[in-house]
Input
Amino acid sequence: MKTIALTGIRRLKMMEVPLPVIRHGDDVLIKMGAVGVCGSDIHYYTTGRIGSQVVRYPFTVGHECAGTVVKTGRTVRNLKVGDRVAIEPAMSCSTCDQCKSGRPHTCRSLAFLGCPGQAEGCLSEFIVMPAECCFKISAPRLSFAEATLAEPLAIGIYAVKTSIPLSKASRIAILGAGPIGLSVLAAAKAAGAGPVHVTDKITARLWMAKKMGAAWTGNPRGSDVVKAILRRSPRGMDVVFECCGQQDALDQGIELLKPGGKLMVVGIPEVERVSFSADKIRRREICIQNVRRQAHCTQAALSMIEKKPGCVRPMITHVFPFSETRRAFDLVAGYRDGVVKAAIVFE
Output
């Protein structure tokens, strides 16, 4: 089969590799239908690492995916050949203390698609996954590209679920309107949140946020977004979702929060260390919580997309065939042509 692997910094190569085989009774062989290009894929493409996770070449990235079941292991009962599925890319052990306490996303032995040292990614014609990671697509008209959005949307749902109980009275800001920030926006609106403030440095993404229900948007390159938001809501935000992994956004988040407010750190910084004003977070008793992917939210995300595909469909701004994967990566890496989410589709 064909796979597209990283072979160096900003280097991708289509290669012939053996077809993956079913080794366990609960394994499922899946023919890929579409793969979404994630910001973490781009980190590996442009820098070869995320923190301590360093690529050893050649390596295949990709983890947002959907496809068709072509073979199942002997113990699989909930799936059959021909089923269309969205994939949860995290494979947990089910036996460690984290898994047993309901935290499979922080499993001690977690393997994640497209993560160096854990598992090869899904930019291949076929992959094998445990059946528990495969969620059946019940809406016949839902495209594979749309189904790949279940992965980032699950993160948005989890971030919202983990923050505070939301209501129309909640004051919320989302800093960063890439796919994850927009997924948080969609999840917050679905949870009943009131006016949501969204910032980003790319105008096209602010337009997208408006289209998806943001009450106010602002670009920190051209204005003081903290002052602008606090003019609208002088008491400050109840919760801020930092979704771009940038130090200036973390600083803005602290400035925006009310005393007792909560900063949800969803973005992945490219640097090893970030900082906070000890005086400000102490005096206002700010709660800072990191979001590590998601837990138990994939089915909720897929169901939300199936019921209201328009809630996230606008995020897919560009579609490329498998053979043009490098074009997709270069487009996303350069933030060109108003790209929000690029999808790679297979015949």
Observations:
- The chain has a mean pLDDT of 96.
- The CA atoms of residues 32 and 125 lie 5 Å apart.
